[in-house]
Write a structure and sequence with these properties.
This protein is an alpha/beta fold. The protein has twelve helices and twelve strands. Helix 3 links the parallel strand 4 and strand 5. Helix 4 runs antiparallel to helix 5. The two termini are 38 Å apart. Bound molecules: guanosine-5'-monophosphate and manganese (II) ion (MN). The site of guanosine-5'-monophosphate has 14 residues, from strand 11 and strand 12.
């Protein structure tokens, strides 16, 4: 059972020291949602930080005006810890101990595979972005959405909807964004910062990745991978491979796109996307991961080439015939 925005808002407004936990490998929704909530809670006089465990991606750094910290001693035991866009402890592994020191825990998330694991939970898989839930929570708390908060929420929503293109985009998504314009957001400026800020190394590594492209099941599934060697050769960073899986899904006839990232010789991160009917959250969950019907991921404890075979086998079982 979910708690209401009112209940969660009251918990936050009755607290002084608050830490926010976006998921590992932050995306625009995790970052934008956490920054927006942090900013409004500070405006209400709260001592609030976004606690992170990995670097803010370059194209999202424009939102961080002193909100994000890796310093777990930035405050003692917080009154409240809030998971933002992240629904299980495996999504913030290096911060779990700190999370557990909190007097109360809250989860605000929209992943299908999230189970209520906090004292207060708002998990809505029907919401295109956690940013939409944060918007409603802020309204419920009667806190102001200024331009900076509005742009963080816009960043959250544009990224998780594939710029309003994915099937999770609804009338409500557009209504919320329309209301954000009232706070003076410069949507094009945010989009340029997020989407038109790529390095040449990124383009070069994508070229190498595309050489690994293969399809199975008569072109229904497209798969490709990146290795550490490709990153070294091109000088690209792993996060610069973001977006390639969507390009695979965009191929005619492809229902499921899979992208594998070699973390080390025994660890592979898998990203999956589906176009119109396959449930990739279920496939990811069978490997201990999760996500949404149309976008999900997992970590497989095998080499990238072994993981490729494992995933192909699973896809053939799930989607073959
Ligand atoms: P991406 O492929 O962009 O890394 O992730 C796609 C979606 O699946 C995101 O919503 C992300 O939160 C979720 N996801 C990715 N990897 C994992 C994982 O290992 N566990 C869970 N529970 N969700 C994941
Ligand atoms: Mn999200």
């Amino acid at each position: 059972m979910n708690n209401t925005f009112q209940e969660i808002g009251n918990v936050l407004l009755n607290s002084e020291n608050i830490l926010l936990y976006p998921h590992l490998n932050m995306d625009g929704d995790a970052m934008g949602s956490a920054v927006a909530l942090c900013r409004v809670l500070r405006s209400a006089g709260k001592n609030c930080y976004v606690l992170i465990e990995d670097k803010v991606p370059d194209n999202l750094a424009f939102m961080d005006h002193g909100y994000c910290t890796m310093d777990q001693n930035i405050m003692g035991s917080p009154d409240v810890s809030v998971c933002v866009d992240c629904g299980d402890e495996g999504r913030f592994p290096a911060r779990v101990d700190k999370f557990r020191t909190s007097k109360l825990t809250v989860c605000i998330d929209h992943h299908r595979t999230t189970e209520n694991f906090c004292d207060y939970n708002c998990v809505d898989p029907g919401s295109a972005a956690t940013g939409q839930l944060i918007f409603k929570l802020i309204k419920e708390m009667n806190l102001p959405i200024d331009k900076e908060t509005g742009e963080a929420l816009f960043a959250a929503i544009t990224t998780d909807t594939g710029n309003f293109q994915y099937s999770n985009t609804t009338e409500e998504t557009h209504r919320i964004v329309a209301e954000l314009y009232e706070s003076g957001i410069e949507a094009n400026k945010v989009s340029v910062a997020i989407y038109e800020n790529n390095s040449i190394q990124r383009l070069m590594v994508n070229g190498k990745i595309l050489e690994t492209l293969e399809t199975i099941l008569d072109g229904k599934c497209a798969l490709c991978y990146v290795t550490q060697a490709m990153l070294e050769e091109t000088g690209a960073m792993m996060e610069e491979t973001e977006g390639i899986v969507q390009q695979l899904r965009a191929l005619a006839g492809v229902e499921v796109a899979v992208f594998l990232k070699e973390k080390d010789e025994n660890t592979t991160k898998v990203s999956m996307r589906s176009k119109s009917y396959a449930d990739v959250a279920e496939i990811a969950a069978s490997f201990g991961g999760g996500g949404h019907i149309r976008a999900a991921g997992a970590t497989i404890n095998h080499s990238v080439t072994e993981s490729l075979e494992i995933i192909k086998q699973k896809l053939i079982e799930s989607l073959g015939a």
